[in-house]
Amino acid sequence: MPKIAVLQMTSGIDPEANLATILQSVRQAAEGGAQVVFTPEMSILLDRDRQRSRRWVNPVWEQTVLDELSLMSAKMQIDVALGSMAVASGTGKWANRTHYFRQDNQNPDIYDKIHMFDVDLANGESWRESNAYDPGREVVDIAGTPLGRLGLTICYDLRFPALFGALGDRRCDAIAVPAAFTRPTGAAHWHVMLRARAIEAQAFVIAAAQVGRHQDGRETYGHSLVVDPWGEVLLDMGGEAPGLGFCDIDLARIAEVRAQVPALANRRTIAKS
């Protein structure tokens, strides 16, 4: 039964400090017996001031991060799912990208966030992720992880069931949902949507989250969760503070749930009118 670690962070505007926190947590996760550690969306730099953060979004800094995490993954013999970081995409905009590092020190698997967070909330918060980021185009899952087949998503992707349906059709055993959810949307929707996606995909959902008040002024909801294929919450790290949590993943639970309610096998294609 694999054990995972989930890192809940309050990432700030100093990416070197954030990277140091992640590296220390990877070491602690491995020492605690975890086989994979998951970090939140924008783990390396969380800064809504795009002019200030622009100096860090370049291939040189990106490679520094990748090298450090790849070396730590190999050294500590633990896979590292870096929830996301901003990377240069070559179009003048950025990509919001997940990197999954395997402990055998190969090049990381990557996924670019598909759905852009362009919203105007009732509390006055306004976000236009598409102003700075290009959306991803590919549904990504990776085989051969300690959790079996792992689907990759990021934050706002959670609101789009078709993506999770596609990952369910690929029979993913687990799906990562690294996030930096706002407090209003988190309080209203975070738990119910994560549980729903786990039930729909009949897979474990692992959601490492940002938490608290950040240096750029935003506030995030926290409550990093691990949910099993039946929708049961196995880990909830609360909404108050950063930290490292651990959870055992009983992969046999997937077959049990799919045998009881064979929704993936029973799914029909609905014709568009």
Describe what you observe in this structure.
- By secondary structure, this protein is α/β, with parallel strands linked by helices.
- The protein has a single domain, classed as Nitrilase/N-carbamoyl-D-aminoacid amidohydrolase.
- Helix content is 29%, strand content 27%.
- The chain has a 6-stranded mixed beta sheet. Strands 8-9-10-11-14-15 form a 6-stranded mixed beta sheet, covered by helices on one side.
- The chain is globular.
- The mean pLDDT is 94.
Shape, per Cα inertia axes: globular
N-to-C series of helices and strands: EHEHHEEEEEEEHEHEEEEEEHH
Quote the average pLDDT: 94
What do we call the CATH homologous superfamily?
Answer: Carbon-nitrogen hydrolase
Rg estimate, integer Å: 18 Å
In terms of structural class, how would the helical and strand content be classed?
A: alpha/beta
Number of domain units: 1
How many helical stretches? Answer: 7
Oligomeric organization of the protein chains? single chain
The main sheet orders its strands as: 5-4-3-2-1-16
Task: Pick out the low-confidence regions.
Answer: none
CATH class type: Alpha Beta
Distance between the termini: 45 Å
User: Beta-strand level of the residues, as a percent range?
Assistant: 25-35%
